[in-house]
Amino acid sequence: MTTIKQKRTKQWVDKLWPESTYPVSYGDALSKLTKDELTYIRTKLRIPGLSSLNKQALIEALVRLVPERIEEETIRYWDRERWTVIQKILNGQGRWAKPLLTVEQYDYFRYRGIAFPSTVDKTRVVLIPEELMAWFRAKGANLYNKGIAVRNTEWVRLSAGLLYYYGTMTVEQLAERVSALTGAAVDVPEFSGVLREASEYYAQIRVDAGDRVSHSRVADPEKVVGEQEFRAELEFYPLTKSQILKAAEPDYIEKNQYYIDLVRFLRAIYEISREEADCLVEECAEAAMNGLSQGEVMRILSDSLELPDEATMKVLTDKLVLLMNSTRQWVLKGYSPDELSALRQRASVAEESAKKADVISMETRRKIGRNDPCPCGSGKKFKKCCSG
């Protein structure tokens, strides 16, 4: 018997991979979409004046107008990965068999009217319509600018990595950071376009309201912004370029020793797989990154696991606290609580040392440096005599 869930899954698959012919005309490819989906293509490519058309008239207009808009509105912002996808389809004469993309990435190409996931002879493929194939071939030499694609790739990866550690930033803040990392000026409007397009292709980047870009894991950007502004005197944690690029990888999570210890501990007291334990600890780490309290993070574990006896519970709590205190938080501008505590302690020691050095000689009315002769007349340096 087919269950409701199985029926829904089949409906979803049929919608994502509709039956098609190969080669496919542009009109036939677009006819598989709903009127709302066609309208979405028109909106993404900023094609005006088509809102009153019925579905067939809209398809005919898009067949004519999409090639005029895709270079300006989307292709100019592509990185190397998206160009590689298109090149695979072009190399297959308009057909890419056994494609491997996420659902969001299939939708990215479909809802720009460029490439269409389809089923041909019971095989899943991605197709570029004949008319667009001819367009790509005619414009190919001028369309792909390797330098721009390389630049866009670096912009996207650095932005994703920075957002992993800092949570949320304005486009201008990100552009400034990326410029410093690359040593090259960043055109902010162009950069904004690259991020806008990347946000619909890559899971890590999310464009929020108010010219703000966030990592997709950030639950409450406004809370993060408020906490960061409360710490206005605190500079963002200094990251290396290699750290940033590593964090740009899909599904990246920073796994320190305390993270690994908690995974091992959960596996030791519960009959769960490494993947299950890792998934739970990742949820805890993500909650800590969002600035949640210890109680809130503990509830994540209690929702999935039966909490142990009191003695084991204490060990679990201690390990969870170690994880949380060592996890970089967006509200702390990329610092972990442990790092921020150490930073403040060093600043306090330096301030106290400076205060000790600010001793005024009663005779000269001048401040006495730590290497100056001690005013007591001992002949020793001040730091080795009366400073302490």
From TrEMBL:
InterPro entries: SEC_C_motif. It comes from the Bacteria. Gene3D superfamilies: 3.10.450.50. This is YecA family protein.
